[in-house]
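Input sequence (278 aa), recorded before submission:
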Amino acid sequence: MNRKELNPESGPLAAFGARLRVEREARGWTQDELGERLGYSGTHVSAVETLRKSPTLRFVRSLDRIFGTAGTDDSFEQEWREIRHGSLLAGFPEYVRYEARATEIRVYEVGVVPGLLQTTEYAAAIADGHVRRGAITPEQAEERVSMIEDRQAALVRTPPPLIFVVLDESCIRRPVGGPGVMNAQFDRLIEFAERPNTHLQVAPFGLGARRPFDLPLYVLTMLDRSLMSYAESAQQGHLERDTPSVVPLLTGYHQLQADAPSQKASMALIDEARKGMS
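Predicted structure, token format:
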């Protein structure tokens, strides 16, 4: 039987296939035997190992169940998500893993409502826009929406993290998906603001040069009180895990919160934006 050699360094999918083969052979299973355990054919397993077929979410979750890696940082699903979301900026998938464990999350967003606060319909409208421009495939669009839903679900835990969000006014002024989608999104923002572990503000255009950031920024406080940040531009993202380097960003975030209107006044801005789109 011909055995195709795999080079895990030739790309993410090749690394996935090589890892699958290593895990399977370590247990002494043939492709048919693993396929039977997974509910797939041995031919399907072979196709994934040799890159003739891409793994699906159902397939990788079955792998995690069989190999006992579900819910770990090294799960097949996590690796799959990083592969499938390869169009996302570098550092973001890793950031999301830390976000799910952070005790405090601070978000500043420009242009669009951040993923943690998006409704499914709003997220789908954003993703569909990328599809129409040819930037991603319809399958990738579905997976992006799924990723946002997973991020939000990971934050519903006991105790919940403290979440501070400052939206640039452009986030609530930019229409996405039509009036119905926007109306539901405004409802979600108000619902978010009413939770006991959250705080939401809108930084109006009038802040001008007093606004300390021009690009989106995320700052995390972990259980051990260490800090990390994620910042991105149109071309790249950067995850910073060095606490002293993050402190100036945290200081700037506090200054932004001090200059922005209160949560109550921010809700009035959101209501104003809603009326302008009705």
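Checked by second reader. The chain has twelve helices and six strands.
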